[in-house]
Amino acid sequence: MKYIKNKFFVENVSLQKLTKKFDTPLYCYSYKKLKKNINNFKLNFSKLNPLICFSVKSNSNLKIIKEIKKLGLGADVVSKGELMLAIKAGINPKKIVFSGVGKTYSELKYAIENKILLINSETKSEVKEIEKIAKSKNKIVDIGIRLNPNTDAKTLNKISTGKKGDKFGVNEKTFFELVNYLKKSKHVNLRCLSVHIGSQIFDNKPYEKMLKVIDKIISRIKFKFDYIDLGGGMGISYGNDRKIFNYSNYQKSILKYLGKYNNKIIFEPGRSIVGNTGILISKIIYIKENKSKNFVILDAGMNDLMRPALYGAIHKIIPTIKSKKYSNKTYEFVGPICESTDKFSSNKKFQKLKEKDLIIICDVGAYGSSLSSNYNLRPKPAEILIKGSKIVIAKKRQKLIDLI
Known about the structure:
Layout: E1 2-4, E2 7-10, E3 13-14, H1 15-22, E4 26-30, H2 31-44, E5 51-55, H3 62-70, E6 74-77, H4 80-88, E7 96-98, H5 105-113, E8 118-121, H6 124-136, E9 141-146, H7 172-183, E10 188-194, H8 205-221, E11 227-229, H9 247-258, E12 264-267, H10 271-274, E13 278-289, E14 293-298, H11 307-311, E15 317-319, E16 330-334, E17 343-347, E18 358-361, E19 382-387, E20 390-395, H12 400-403
Parallel strand pairs: 4-19, 5-6, 5-12, 6-7, 7-8, 8-9, 9-10, 10-11, 11-12, 14-16
Antiparallel strand pairs: 1-2, 2-3, 4-13, 13-14, 13-18, 15-18, 16-17, 19-20
């Protein structure tokens, strides 16, 4: 994705061409960037030869999941719907892991019937529910137990998942109890120790701490796990600082602490695979002038991109056509939704804009479309995948008549 003669292109397609055909707001993804991210992930962890299960919650577009499957990844799912989607995309059930704190009877039954690789369980009650279903079907079901390693990932509290106060996983005491309980089970086979400490992590220190906890537990418990599921959480840069997570150091740490156990490593990346593959193109409806700033009112709102309102996340905003004329006022980019939280960012130095201009909200490939809603009864945007010069409709724009 880059400017060519001051006009923005996704691969070989200009945004002007796209928006004329598909209107705005519009999600647009680059296949080339997606492929590059997946190959980079594989290369950086090549010594581990892990099973990479893409986190479907980060982007649940069927066409995108099909491309991810073709590039060799499995799936990490957290609901029956996501599991159905992964199977429909053609992902081998033996490359699917089912995570989450609150799986219902219906979800567990569906996962068991489809013979997926692992159900990562987080409570003794769920383990017993799995056992009950397995017994009724005379099956042996492979599961993992998710440990809460009480590790602070030093990220936003709203996306922290590995501290003792978080709802995820079980503590050491419960973990040991479940392992001992499952040693006697005839219908549930414990194969995996699972952890996940949060999202948007750039520092390797939290992962090191997490790995030390896993090392200590495995050495104490004297139980052979076939898999260690390390979750995901590797961060991507959303601003101008372009921070990069050091995959190489993380691989070294994994080999240092877990290499001696000869377990198959599972990763569940989402954001690091799709985050920077997507943009949201929006049109300026109005510019409302104010003494201190100008409100740039877009046709994209918090229903289309929830992260700024939900997390206070800031996505870089850029013009579709570059110019050298700059505004002397702050631009505050806002949506049309009837909520004060419906705003994207404030920019003190931005090129001059006018009504009907197009702007780009960057790095929305993860938790963009998948978190979108029909709030204010607004149709969800179309989603387009660009492959070179080819335009693939990944999802059609919703129609108001169908919503109503």
